[in-house]
Design goal:
The structure holds 2 protein chains of 2 kinds. By secondary structure, chain A is α+β, with helices and mostly antiparallel strands. Chain A has helices spanning about 5-20, 55-60, 115-125, 165-170, 175-180, 240-245, 260-265, 305-310, 315-325, 350-360, 390-405, 415-425, 445-450, 465-480, 480-500, and strands spanning about 35-40, 65-70, 80-85, 85-90, 95-100, 140-150, 150-155, 205-210, 215-220, 230-235, 255, 270-285, 330, 365, 370-375, 375-380, 380-385, 410-415, 430-435, 500-515. In chain A, the strands form 4 sheets. In chain A, strands 1, 8, 9, 10, 11, 12, 13, 17, 18, 19 and 20 form an 11-stranded mixed beta sheet that branches. Chain A has a 4-stranded antiparallel beta sheet with strand order 4-5-7-6. In chain A, helix 14 (about 465-480) runs antiparallel to helix 15 (about 480-500). In chain B, a hairpin with a 4-residue loop joins strand 1 and strand 2. Chain B starts with a helix and ends in a 6-residue tail after the last helix. Classes of the chains: A alpha+beta, B mainly alpha.
């Protein structure tokens, strides 16, 4: 149940602060520079317009939320959330509004205090159609934000929902009205001022040399305490160069280090590995419709064929083949890092005899070349895979071989990412290997697997539709508590699994390569960078670049 | 001569215009657009909104006219990837590419000419055979593979040189001038060497062949008969004539060199126009892709023009 008592909230906030949610003053040994190899430059550092990962990495250091989600990523009520810009919050009796009391110590990086009017302005910009923020649909349940006094912002909700607190706290980064307020909404996308972000986070922007580096420097006067590091530099580096650079100490951190190079990393004296699961899962979706058509797919519209294909692949063996012992099996349209995940959801077992029998019963008979046919049509389809994805390409080859053993010919179609995106969004594929990254909220499941996700507003590209699953997915996010939400989730996931719209492959697991001199903070499944300000470098392990202190760089 | 020059300049303008037009349309015919990057956080509706906001939902003809107007104003459009006018992106990256390509061009000509001359004067001997084989091998290697091997050898295994970037992203700003220069040079060595190796083989082959044509010539024999030392005969008399075809090669090599910078800059994360082009292609940053191709074509056109002028200057027959 949601906590309505202000006393209980204050107690919870105090407890959270004691557990490390709010930092105390610096230990006095702060210092050091961390260089992070980024796959590219940030596309934007203006929070309402950020849709790329590097932009998120950086913006989350510069800007703050009202409250921060907990390590367990619970999205129901305010459980687990720790204070950020909001020092505390109070629910109204009818739960249709929440009053956020801002920390009076909070300052923008230009020294101006953070005010409730900034919260109201942030909401206005995020939801302004002229801005076109990708976050706007996620804030749809918030009616408005009003200012009670200079340090109290009240969020008003359209409906009581278990995730209403999460919707606001997780999605809305607070931006300063006095910096951006004078820019017309439709010009924010190209305004020069968005290249010089001013936030309230523990790091502030020092320099952004487009295509070369983004340098963040510690905000030593920050209301949450000085970061343990002096500087964080994000520098674009291509994959082979980044791997060599982290193994030789030229950079300190590489996200998504190649899995195949893991032994090299583990034997390195310079860098070490951190392997942890992310909020994502990979699967091979079978298009319910024929390519670029609304007609049923000539092969995949038959459930027996879908089941046979699922049973033809040894998911466990493939997982070990591609990821070694670090892989995690996927169980359905959810990663196990999702708060409502359930590993007891049943997936068809690996059984090639049963797969052959199913295909026989569906009328697909083996021809002289070993490939099955039905009414003169071979059991043959294409498998679209994004060319840069090493694990998905490896899976593609393994699946191709597994299908061949049951008389099915799958032709791999490796596509450049833009070409892949174009084909997928237009339904121009038979089978496609995809990885979906998801938010901590199970709401994302609807976008990818509900009937409402079919068409231009959703991402159900493979036209999966089941009204029972739709209703159950709706219930996940409207259930009154986490237990009920989990129960609905299990039923929804099982219903989808039983329909076999996809072959569930693996949960996203990432290898992070980090220099051995760096002590990292716990990494959250949705954002490894969430606690970057708490990373530290012990004084005895510091190298030249760690000792430059806070001396400004050349302009 | 002036009329020839004017005609060549006019031709160059036409070539650049055609290249601009072709690039403009071809890049837009490829799947995707600046807002189609892979992110499940962005719904198709938001992407459509952005497309409309920046006019990418308009007919191609309308977009083309707008782009030409932007080029006429010296803007070259707007980069969605870098959030700045394209001309600013070119200003930041072009000097890096010119530095890299210029060094590589100079080094490859110097090295190629010397090797070619020595090969020709030692025709059939071990140096000629070994160096020819070696250069042919280098010439046959894909440029990106060669760059990757350099990275592996000198950066990862032997740890002698940095793996990427134009300078140390942290320390460069704090180093004294001398060490800052060394830092820049150390970052330049691997990409410049990769690019140099790409073109040295071709230069050496051409130079060898030109020298073999020049050495039996009457004026060389005359020089020898007049008692000019062999070194003078080769490096002053024969080489002077044998360098003429190399000027033509300069014009031919420029496109190859610029193509090579794309791969080399990508491998070494060198912030030049090639790296910019690859990122822009991946991001479908239309205006940047078009601008980089235009800049590339302008450089090639200028290179060829200069080569022709130089050729005419040193060969009196062409001035007639």
């Amino acid at each position: 149940m949601r906590v309505h008592s202000a006393v209980a909230l204050i107690a919870a906030a105090t407890l959270a602060a004691a557990c490390g949610g709010e930092r105390a003053a610096s230990t006095g040994s702060a210092g050091g520079t961390v260089i992070i190899a980024a796959p590219g430059d940030a596309l934007s550092l203006f929070p309402p317009l950020i849709g790329d990962q590097v932009g998120r990495w950086v913006a989350d250091q510069i800007f703050d939320r009202l409250a921060e989600i907990g390590q367990d990523l619970s999205t129901v009520g305010d459980k687990g959330f720790t204070p950020r810009l909001a020092k505390r919050w109070t629910w109204s009796r009818d739960s249709l509004s929440i009053a956020f009391s801002l920390d009076p110590r909070a300052r923008w990086h230009d020294g101006r205090p953070v005010r409730a009017s900034d919260v109201r302005y942030s909401f206005k910009v995020f939801t302004d159609p002229k801005v076109g923020s990708p976050t706007a649909p996620l804030l749809a349940n918030i009616d408005s934000i009003s200012v009670r006094d200079s340090l109290t912002a009240v969020a008003w909700f359209k409906q009581r929902k278990p995730e209403q607190f999460y919707d606001l706290a997780y999605q809305l980064l607070i931006i300063p009205e006095h910096i951006y307020g004078s820019i017309p909404a439709d010009q924010l996308h190209t305004s020069e001022i968005t290249r010089h972000p001013i936030g309230s986070g523990r790091f502030k922007l020092e320099k952004w040399d487009a295509g070369t580096r983004i340098s963040l420097i510690a905000d030593t006067a920050n209301y949450r305490g000085r970061p343990e590091l002096d500087r964080v530099i994000f520098t674009p580096m291509d994959s082979p160069g980044a791997a060599a650079a982290v193994l030789t100490g030229q950079v300190d951190f590489v996200d998504n280090f190649p899995f195949a190079q893991l032994p090299r990393l583990d034997s390195s004296t310079v860098a070490r590995s951190i392997v942890f699961p992310q909020m994502g899962y990979a699967f091979a979706a079978m298009n319910a419709n024929a390519r670029r058509s609304n007609a049923p797919h000539p092969i995949f519209s038959d459930r027996r064929v879908r089941r046979a294909l699922s049973m033809a692949v040894d998911r466990v063996a493939m997982l070990h083949n591609v990821f070694g012992s670090a892989g995690r099996l996927n169980h359905g349209p959810f990663p196990m890092t999702l708060a409502v995940a359930d590993s007891t959801v049943q997936v068809p077992p690996y059984d090639t005899a049963a797969a052959n029998a199913l295909l026989d019963s569906a009328g697909w008979r083996r021809g002289p070349d070993g490939i099955r046919t039905k009414a003169g049509r071979p059991l043959r389809f294409t498998m679209a895979i994004s060319a840069p994805s090493i694990p998905r390409n490896a899976y593609g080859v393994l699946m191709q071989e597994a299908f061949r053993k049951v008389g099915v010919q799958a032709d791999i179609e490796r596509l450049e990412p833009n070409a892949m995106n174009d084909k997928v969004t237009h339904g121009d594929f038979d089978m496609v290997l995809l990885t979906f990254g998801v938010d901590p909220s199970p709401t994302d499941t609807k976008q990818f697997w509900a009937t409402s996700g079919i068409g231009p507003t959703g991402q159900n590209y493979y036209h999966y539709s089941n009204r029972v699953a739709d209703a159950l997915m709706d219930s996940i996010t409207t259930a009154p508590d986490q237990a009920a939400s989990r129960a609905y989730a299990k039923r929804a996931f099982q219903t989808i699994d039983d329909d076999l719209p996809a072959i569930w492959l693996y949960d996203a697991v990432v290898v992070e390569a980090v220099n051995r001199r760096i002590t990292t903070a716990p990494m959250r499944a949705d954002a490894w960078w969430a606690n970057l300000a708490d990373w530290s470098i012990p004084p005895d392990k510091r190298i030249d670049r760690d000792r430059i202190g806070l001396t400004p760089t050349k302009p | 001569m002036r009329r020839t020059l004017a005609a060549r300049l006019l031709q160059s303008v036409v070539v650049v215009f055609i290249v601009t037009t072709i690039t403009f349309f071809v890049v837009r015919l490829a799947p995707g657009d600046p807002f189609s990057y892979d992110s499940t956080a962005i719904t198709p509706a938001v992407r459509a909104h952005w497309r409309a906001q920046f006019g990418y939902d308009q007919p191609l003809g309308v977009q083309y006219v707008k782009y030409l107007a932007s080029v006429a104003h010296g803007q070259f459009g707007y980069s969605f990837e870098r959030h700045e006018p394209v001309v600013a992106a070119l200003r930041e990256t072009l000097p890096n590419t010119l530095l890299l390509a210029g060094l590589a061009l100079g080094a490859s000509f110097l090295l190629g000419v010397v090797v070619g001359v020595v090969q020709a004067t030692h025709r059939g001997r071990w140096f000629d055979r070994v160096s020819s084989g070696l250069l042919l091998t280098l010439y046959s290697l894909p440029d990106f593979w060669g760059a990757l091997m350099m990275l592996l050898l000198f950066s990862y295994w032997w740890r002698l040189l940095p793996a990427g970037g134009a300078v140390d992203p942290v320390m460069h700003d704090y180093l004294p001038a001398g060490r800052a220069l060394l830092d820049r040079i150390s970052h330049l060595v691997l990409p410049a060497t990769s690019l140099t190796l790409l073109t040295t083989a071709a230069v050496a082959r051409y130079q060898r062949s030109a020298m073999l044509d020049a050495l039996p010539a009457d004026y060389v024999r005359t020089a020898r008969a007049k008692g000019v030392p062999e070194r003078g005969v080769v490096w002053c008399h024969a080489l002077r004539t044998a360098l003429t075809p190399m000027v033509v090669l300069l014009g031919l090599l420029l496109p190859a060199l610029l193509g090579g910078t794309v791969f080399v800059e990508k491998v070494f994360s060198w912030p030049g126009i090639g790296y910019l082009a690859v990122s822009a292609i991946n991001a479908r940053d239309y205006d940047v892709v078009t601008a980089t191709v235009v800049v590339g074509s302008v450089l090639v056109v200028i290179g060829n023009l200069l080569a022709d002028l130089l050729h005419a200057a040193i060969d009196p027959r062409l001035r007639a």
